[in-house]
Write the structure tokens for this entry.
Amino acid sequence: MTATSTILVTGATGNVGRQVVSHLMAVHGGAVRALTRNPATAGLPDGVDVRQGDLADSGALETAAQGADAVFLMWPFHDDAPAATVVNALKRCVGQVVFLSSGAVLDGIVPERQPHPVGRSHAAVERLIERSGLRWTHLRPSTFAANTVWWADQIRVGDVVQGAYGAVPMALLHEADIAAVAVRALTESGHDRAVHVLTGPEVLTQAEQVRTIGEVLGRPVRWQELSREAARQRLLADPEFPDTFVDPLLDGYAAMLAAPPTATTDTVESVTGRPARTFRTWVGDHAADFG
Ligand SMILES: NC(=O)c1ccc[n+]([C@@H]2O[C@H](COP(=O)([O-])OP(=O)(O)OC[C@H]3O[C@@H](n4cnc5c(N)ncnc54)[C@H](OP(=O)(O)O)[C@@H]3O)[C@@H](O)[C@H]2O)c1
């Protein structure tokens, strides 16, 4: 990308997209566009060219992407049904895509055989992008630290977090680190056909994550193990949590328990020049969410 390129950010009001937008506004000399379904409530920074549209609506996507040079693509769907339409629309409009994929995608396995549903849908999108003729970079992040906000309701009113699979280890990632890598890939050369596998700097079980949140908040908080079915019912009863994602989430935890992702990568540091932020730092940045 040149300093005057136009970059479109999808998922621009989400955990990662919002950080990508603000980071681009700080470092990129060209125009920054943001796609959202609700511009009125998007709360994006001044100077961002906010466009209304749903990713599933290829007409709206094409209108938003017209004249842009590159796109940050976030996949909000739980399957790959609209993938061909989205990738074809991008192909007609932009030259480069940086795709927020998932660490659930396993190398060397075709999308249809990926063991995890999130891996299946993201691998299918990756493959379409690779075959599209677009210049591409895939980001494959491990679990987001932001997922722990799902516990905020419990932590605000007590000292216990109930859930299943407390022993699952994760190398939680700060959304700012994912965004920093995305911005490098969007604005620098050297990332074409790169698959950036991103993790946080340390592996913590869910029970350890809960303890860390308590330490940062200055009061003890502990994990209480539930059966899978009890945890499932709890998530289904949560109006904020999408019902369709309950089983994929629990299946993902079960898979991570069976084959723990013990390794961390140094990709955040090698790409951005800064070590990945710790989970403790993330909690400090988001303490108000738990207060
Ligand atoms: N959470 C994890 O642990 C994890 C780990 C690895 C990979 N990932 C992947 O990361 C992605 C999630 O990123 P995130 O946490 O930054 O997202 P997020 O916070 O869940 O936000 C998603 C944003 O996407 C937009 N959106 C939703 N449906 C849309 C649609 N149909 N058309 C256009 N925009 C739509 C929404 O914006 P508007 O409401 O403004 O339209 C929303 O703000 C997913 O693909 C997930 O699989 C997540």
Notes: Residues 11, 13-17, 36-38, 42, 54-56, 74-76, 100, 102-103, 118, 141, 143-144, 147 surround NAP (CB under 6 Å). The mean pLDDT is 95.
